[in-house]
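Morning. Coffee machine broken again, so started the prediction first thing and wrote up yesterday's gels while waiting. Chain of 211 residues, entered below exactly as on the submission form.
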Amino acid sequence: MLPADLRQAEVEALAAVQAALASQSRGLWTVEFRFEGLRILPVALRLLAALTPQHPEARLLFPDAGATALAKRDAPDQAVQLLGLGDLLRLQQADGGSEGLVLLAAPTPADYEEVESLCAQHRGSLVMLNGRLEDAAIGIGTVARERRKGFLADWQSAYGLIPTAEGALRRSYPDDWQFYRRDPDGYRSVCSFEQRPDREKQLEALEEAAR
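Came back before lunch.
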């Protein structure tokens, strides 16, 4: 069943992230709330606060200094846990790496190199919240493209709530992806997928359900 609102989705996401983190000592995980106009900062701060009791060493990273300063202004009680992506990279260089839980808020393709470097030197788990590291501008068949494919394939979905043209996709670890069709009177579950379905697979599922 789809969550009724964002707060319920956050509760689901927290449980999924906790289960994902408990499943392995080091992992690369994603959390996605793909709603247009969503302010990710409050969501990221609430997730950090909810995870801190079990992970007191947890840190939340932002791609740039401006976003980091805004987060510290909005959450002064969490300021010690808030860093810029470049800040942790510098700490890694000084300390020979990093440990513990790291949350990363909304990195973009421009941050790809730094994120890849961060992951290579981190010995704990990372959770990327609403990240978009893919860059369509990189040519197919290039060395850079293949390297990106390999790195991005290492990330696993802990939680996803993603609107589609016909409905919605939802994934809550360790469950499969659930595909929902939007009907006039609400959303109905169509089927599940072990892997996140692309557009073609979604359309095939809708056609099969309509028979």
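The chain is about 40% helix and 25% strand. Going to sketch it on the whiteboard this afternoon.
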